Amino acid sequence: xxxxxxxxxxIKLFIITFSFLxxxxxxxxxxxxxxxxxxxxxxxxxPQKIVVANAYDIKTASVRDNKxxxxxxxxxxxxxxxxxxxxxxxxxxxxxxEGIAVPAxxxxxxxxxxxxxxxxxxxxxxxxxxxxxxxxxxNVTENDDGxxxxxxxxxxxxxxxxxxxxxxxxxxxxxxxxxxFHSSRSVLSGLLAAGPNIVANSEDALDGIYANVxxxxxxxxxxxxxxxxxxxxxxxxxxxxxxxxxxEHEKAFQVCESLRxxxxxxVASKASYYCAVLLEYMGRYNEVKFYLEESLRGYYSPDAxxxxxxxxxxxxxx
Length: 318
What we know:
By secondary structure, the protein is an alpha/beta fold. It is about 40% helix and about 30% strand. The chain has a five-stranded mixed beta sheet. It has a two-stranded antiparallel ribbon with strand order 1-7.
């Protein structure tokens, strides 16, 4: 489950949970954590060095001058960010070349020359780039006088095409699309509504690049994704709440551990779920899945079910 889908599920769950809570006796608490991600591709031979460069000529897209200038800058940032993140996430050295380093007329030979010039065994080449807004829906409300208000919702999308080369010429192409909700605006007609201007929202496009590069590099290197867990503190867990607020997460875990043996099925189930959340917060990922499955065996919890989606395929690390 990707982070965009998880964010939407978490928001919906929070709304549902909060709607049915008696806030006088139940305290909603959020814990911001992160989950580990493992690469989906294995290097048969680890790269000795990776060079990152651009092969996409923005001028071929026939866009306005100000958009052409912005996209040129954003592609250079993409190349630089990819190289920097490889250096940060791994022990593999990486370097980058800004500008159009691989002309369309001689792509293969130019990439070989590029790797030779930088003493690189592999190359990551940006082949395409686009940042745009997409209308996702139009909410219509009717006024007392019979007139209607239309509110259009827009996502910002950054699409980047990458190709990965090794020295023998083998390559594989990947298109990554990073999407998130951006804004809404009143419109006369959803079909004719103009979306936000990408040049005026360049900072948001920049955030999209960072998200896109992160998604791409997770194919090759370990990473993390942020999560927000919602837990509901009832009277049985007052001490847990106090310990969490004090930053005593290990002690809070021990209290939850003891409550797993409660005669009340719902309390025991919550205790197991809270153990999982606290273990995740403390980075003890190998232990999380056990507690989530135990929580769901005892008493169904939508919170535990959503969290388990992140751990169904998790491989225990030795």
